[in-house]
User: Fold this.
Amino acid sequence: MARNILFITTDQQRFDSLGCHGSVARTPAADLLASEGIDFTCAYTNHAVCMPTRTTMFTGQYPLTHGITANGMRYSTGEKGVARWLKRHAGYRTALIGKSHFEPMFDPFLQFKQNRLAPLGSNGPWMGFDHVELASHGLIGGHYTRWLLENHPEHTGGFAIAIAGKGGGETGAPELHHNPIPRELYHSDWIADRTIAHISDLNQTGSPWFIWMSFPDPHHPFDPPADELRRHNWRDLELPPGNPGSDRKCIESLKTKPRHWLDYYMGNYQNCEGAPVKFVPRNLTHDQIREINQYIHVENELIDEAMGRVLAHLERLGIYDNTDIFFTTDHGDLQGDFNFAFKGPFHTNSLLHIPFIYKPAACEKAAPRVSEQLVSHVDLVPTFCRAAGVPLPPWAQGRHLPLDPDETRERVITTWDSQFRVIGMHMRTLINDRYIITAYLPSTRGRGGRWPLLERAIWGSKGRIPKYDGTEGELYDRLEDPWQWRNLWDDPSFKRVKSDLLADLWDNMPEECPHERRVVSPV
Assistant:
């Protein structure tokens, strides 16, 4: 009997956000999947922002290879996407419900089909998906926005504007927003409702299905239903263990790293590749960090409860055991580590270490376990294909997730290439079972950007944009320094370790896309 595939993703969720990974957030559905399947505790993203990672999930290629190396680019055809491949080779019915972000979201003139579908009343096909129902952060667009405007217009005013940086909550923390929307109308529950309805429809056809259920949370802005905030009191929350605890200790740690780390902390470097432009980490108070974490814990619990309803529906239909279920996210969140928040060009566990759970269908007879094998998003498409019993696409670069606990995986490769040419920062990172090493390529700053007026408005004459010469880097011992506070790049006692790791990194860099893909939108 052909197996169904349910691929569940969130947006910007840390590894330690789940109850089974030590969080105070209650996540019984994810915890159950982890206990019944394989909980990969050494999973790392191949990129630290949304669009490159989501394209990797979709294609099985590294960002350098598929060419979507930053937000604001366009992966438009879906020809090398897993949805079309499963349809062609095994007759799968395919759907995407929730956030896509294969094309830019800032699109006031609706240039991109992703953003035209809902206004046109269309549910696809698109990118190889037979059926799509899209949602994003708040009311940016998509089918959720149209549904809320048509059916509950009185509840549309509570969502925040993304990346505005406006303070809110009780502490004035950036990106917090009061949203009086009833919980059952919030997009996490809407995504579960629409997924349940579509599974019911597909179950009548007898065809196997692949559904990507994609939650926009817990990405900022943080605007969950206000009535749900009572779940956690921010005053009772501890500071994240990745926060050094004082201004002095933050500066001591950041001084060991390449210059943009400390410049960002001090407000001299505007990190607009994942954070509000005017955000200054040094000004973030410990209470604000606690309140940000409160909002995120609530959003993670709402996601988990929505996911739990979908899993229960599979049980009711009698197809839970015949469904391969995956749960992961695109990347993490700084969330108070180093006194930072949000994301950006910072290759440490905060952003790279991700939750990654795979519950194979019962026919695999895979014993539940916690695995420390190194895996990443590039391994998803090969695993989807294995579950579906179809050959691996010739373009896919990963390997199917290890079912054998003795199978070794040596490394994960992660890259960063700045979206804005005025920054021109390029990082190449290798993660193995002990170390994280990041080599900086020479900066390409100064070649001119696509939006000179926007770039001048952001960086002006006061902002300091670092220009690296290719000798800089970062090296951390993951076991001895789990929060990466001490950069060992220039430590003489680690010279041999650094040399060996760099050789391994350069020997395993993925093939680069033969043609340049341009940034066409800010996000």
About this structure: The mean pLDDT is 94.
